[in-house]
Design a protein that fits this description.
This protein has 339 residues and is an alpha/beta fold. It is 32% helix and 23% strand. Strands 1, 2, 3, 4, 5, 6 and 16 form a 7-stranded mixed beta sheet that branches. The protein has a 4-stranded parallel beta sheet with strand order 10-9-8-14, with helices on one face. The protein has a 3-stranded antiparallel beta sheet with strand order 11-12-13, with no helix packed on it. The structure holds flavin-adenine dinucleotide. Flavin-adenine dinucleotide (FAD) binds next to helix 1, helix 2 and helix 10.
Length: 339
């Protein structure tokens, strides 16, 4: 008979690495799909550089990937725990719930399948990038450098003393511009609609805030990004009615929504919100029994490293409680039979 794992963790970013660590420390037979170069590249984990909103993370160049490596190294160095863990260095391509309630998980090549009693899905989300002349490529070097940011709670403070902007036509883009003004009062605050119609056109409160906070709304398409000699972002070239203009901007936050990596949750029939997050109970169990979600993919949580860690621990402990209950019931029945 093929091996049956207690817990299969899919994804090894912030949530997945903590899920794996908790599972082996709880003495569970654990399987992890760490993902591939392609899934890593499109994950948020890969874009997080220095973290300043968490103790013990300040000095990391690549905060999440470094901590993930440390988790797996530590497990490898401890024979007892390393024997508890099977690592698949690729992505999971399919999850199916079997009639007996277990899950069958297929690897990326479709060659191998694995069976687990519980699944913890930690595949995350990605922020939607603004298109410049039909491509997201022009923004990427600035995202890499940290002049373009995506998380207000992580990087909002960067607008202090900087000409700042949000990019987007969504109400969120306008609310975030207002928040950054209220919290940090940067010298200038702008919103780049990038050729789209503002969604707050009929929202009296937002229109009033934009007016009284002196937030400049720039309508035209962004054509290019200008940098100084140190490659720091300086300005956006924008198409206006008659001619192109240059608008200074040193820090920008795209606010265009998200791409949720929820395919595997959809495959098992879990309920998904309009934004693509997976609906769960407070322990992270989705509407499919024993199929859990941790990290940014879970509905209604802060998108942060420490919340991802906490979610993973709550979920794995809940699985552990169910497994121990099974063990307890079986121990009691055996004791009764032996009386
Ligand atoms: C630019 C930026 C800066 C940030 N800064 C901070 C900060 O300073 N502080 C903070 O607390 N938070 C920060 N965050 C938020 C933080 O990155 C996320 O909250 C956190 O990474 C979410 O963890 P996660 O496990 O859900 O997803 P991720 O960490 O993104 O991990 C997802 C993992 O799933 C894997 N994967 C995807 N699909 C599959 C598949 N089919 N099979 C197997 N594996 C798969 C990927 O390869 C990846 O390893 C920042 C985010 C961004 C974008």
């Amino acid at each position: 008979m093929s091996e049956i794992y207690d817990i299969a963790v899919i994804g090894a970013g912030a949530a997945g690495s903590m899920g794996v660590l908790r599972a082996v420390l709880n003495n569970k037979k654990t399987l992890v799909f760490k993902g591939s170069r392609a899934t890593n590249k499109r994950s948020r984990a890969m874009w997080v550089r220095k973290v300043v909103n968490m103790p013990l993370m300040f000095d990391r160049k690549r905060a999440i990937t470094e901590s993930v490596d440390e988790v797996f190294d530590w497990i490898q160095e401890h024979e007892y725990f390393s024997q508890k863990l099977t690592t698949i260095e690729q992505e999971a391509s399919n999850v199916e719930k079997l009639e007996d309630g277990k899950f069958k998980i297929t690897d990326a090549e479709g060659q191998n399948t694995y069976t687990a009693k519980f699944v913890l899905l930690c595949t995350g989300i990605m922020d939607t990038q603004p298109e410049i002349q039909g491509s997201i490529k022009p923004i990427l070097p600035y995202a890499n450098k940290g002049d373009v940011d995506y998380c207000i709670r992580c990087d909002g403070h960067k607008v202090i003393n900087k000409v700042s902007a949000t990019i987007g036509h969504t109400k969120t883009a306008a609310w975030v511009a207002a928040l950054l003004h209220e919290r940090y009062n940067p010298p200038e605050m702008k919103i780049f609609l990038n050729g789209k119609e503002a969604e707050w056109k009929d929202d009296a409160e937002l229109n009033e805030l934009i007016r009284i906070y002196n937030i400049k709304v720039i309508a035209g398409d962004i054509l290019s990004i200008k940098a100084d000699e140190n490659k720091a972002m300086q300005a956006f070239e924008v198409q206006e009615a008659d001619s192109n203009i240059e608008e200074n901007v040193e820090v920008a936050f795209p606010m265009l929504g998200q791409i949720a990596y929820n395919e595997l949750a959809k495959q098992v029939g879990a309920e998904i919100t309009d934004r693509g997050n997976v609906v769960t109970n407070e322990k992270g169990e989705s509407t499919v029994a024993n199929f859990y979600i941790a990290g940014d993919l879970r509905q209604g949580k802060k998108y942060q490293i420490y919340t991802s860690w906490d979610m993973a621990v709550d979920s794995v402990d809940d699985m552990d409680a169910k497994l121990r209950k099974e063990y307890r019931e079986s121990a009691k029945s055996k004791a009764l039979a032996n009386k």
